[in-house]
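Researcher: Quick one. two chains, 703 residues in total.
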Amino acid sequence: MSSSKTFQTSLLESIAKGFANWEANEVAESLSRQPETQDQFKTESGIPLKRVYTPTDVANIPPEDIGLPGRYPYTRGPYPTMYRARPWTIRQVSGFGNPADTNRRYKYLIAAGQTGISTDFDMPTLMGYDSDHPMAFGEVGREGVAIDTLDDMEALFDGIDLEKTSASLTINPTAFIVYAMFVSAAKKRGYDPHRLAGTIQADILKEYIAQKEWIFPIRPSVRLVRDTILYSAEHTKRFNPISISGYHISEVGADAVHEVAFTISFAITYIEECMKAGMSVDEFAPRLSFFYVCQADFFEEIAKFRAARRVYAKVIKERFGAKLAESMRMRMHVQTAAMTLTKPQYNVNLMRTTVQALAAVLGGAQSMHTNGFDEAFTIPTEEAMKLAIRTQQVLAEETNITSVVDPLGGSYLIEALTSQFEERVFGVLNEIDKMGGAIRAVETSWMQRICADSAYEYELRKARGERTVIGVNKYVEEEKPADFEAHPYDEGTLARQLDRLRKVKASRNQEQVKQILERMKVVAQDESQNLLPITVEAVEARATLGEICDALRGVWGVYREDPIF
Amino acid sequence: MTKENAPIRVLLSKLGLDGHDRGVKIVARVLRDAGIDVVYAGLHRSPEEVVSAAIQEDVDVLGVSLLSGAHMPLFAKVIALMKAKNAEHIILVGGGLMPDDDIVKLKEMGVADILRQDSTPEQIVSTIRRVVSERDAA
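Model:
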């Protein structure tokens, strides 16, 4: 306490004295009349919460750690003026059916006031199969849009301004192909690749612990990420070649501290791989972007976003020696937590999502997806998506919360929680370093075990009623049939997609495709080469996504996990 | 068909391409903790693979989880394969996120029950015990 740079020692002593007195009198008297509801209060990730916070709780936090928005270590936000200059991007993810179906949905969402777009792909596209592959059975265009060839990508973004409306592509093991298709489609329409705004998820490491969309073994998969980041730094300067994602790690069970720590440990791995390939951190780090969930624990989530920025800034500066501010500031997309949504009393999902979205804004998100109230049923309807957009518009345009940057900065609770959160994240990062890095932590299933254990623990807490889920374990009502029409699947999707695929295959130069794929296999065998140039060549010659993956499966094999439960 | 006093055997698997395995792994753990024999066949399995595995492992229950929305066509295929391979003594239970109307249809098609996202550990265990005792009583 004596070393506080924020408060004078005499002031702190007097506050501490007043606090002890308050505990002995008002608190003791109140407790004797009515005990508190729990012996211990804590956050979802287990950080103990005090009854009240005072200046003594923040006295030892170096003032420069809190700092100012847009200045290192970016605790208070990546930009100095934040929403006063530009509101966060309203970016609802959508994708289903054939490319034209999703294109129509984009235009609907843009008309409703969405300011960025985000694409969900169907399972075959995500997993590297063409629509005519046996493993694609039943899944073509089902929970995302089907993309087989460059022609599909052109149809997907038809009529959308790719400089003004940033496009996010939610795809991982096949990200390098989809990125190549996106850039090629844009070039064909006359865009300068350096002016394209967009993001591709491409964060493969988290796939091995959450969401589980993988094709190849871990190491060649990480190489593909490296190749994409390096290629993008040279050819598409404004594009984010990766969105390092905690969202899925949280949704598979990890608590908030582990969500952030694992995410940053993956970022460290990608950065190390890119630097090993000869690039300096400041050449590519400015375009690394992040994606987090916003769960239900309001203050912990706000502290999480602030702490994540601070940890990342310190890592980039101190560990990697970055010089550029753009390299050190963590920019994040946030999505509200699908795991918290329930089927019983589904209208309550609107309230859950609103509160989570508020926490994301108070935490300083750059872009946001708010879930549809019907997502515990199936992919959301247009109406549900419009309400989700309106939720963000209410926050952005009716509440006045955007007028002050980091409005909770300086709150004794928020600052104390942010610092404790930071300390715990660094603790986990040190553990990962000790075991030899994030790839080892995945290969040994250490991360998978942590996620599985906390997911199981959460279920037990829910079952014991320690974790309230309204409509499920409290305030339960007899279930009524849903009174809305869930999003239907168009049974004609598959036939139309197969037709598209057939036409492309019939009209291309087969010999050229074959040759490119053969050359691609050679490039794949040499780890020092970048696979992106040949990937671009392949998609432009109309090689399909499945063919490209098959060529690489032949070289690298496929990944099989040893399941942890 | 009754296996006196033998523990119930369950094969759990993901079906199709989606990798959302939080639910199926919780089911695996809950059943295991309740003394039920659990074999987990893992992710990204085709209908052929899950049906063959269930026959090979000689299980009472085949539990299939998917959150891809492709439950109608994929379950239809699993049911057809079970019929073709004379494996109809194996009880088929589904798990995942699906609209109510589809759940009704799946039960008509021969799926014994569906574990939903809000099923409690107790409900998970009692569902499995119930479907097995219903079969054995039949």
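DSSP finds five helices and five strands in chain B.
Researcher: Thanks, that's what I needed.
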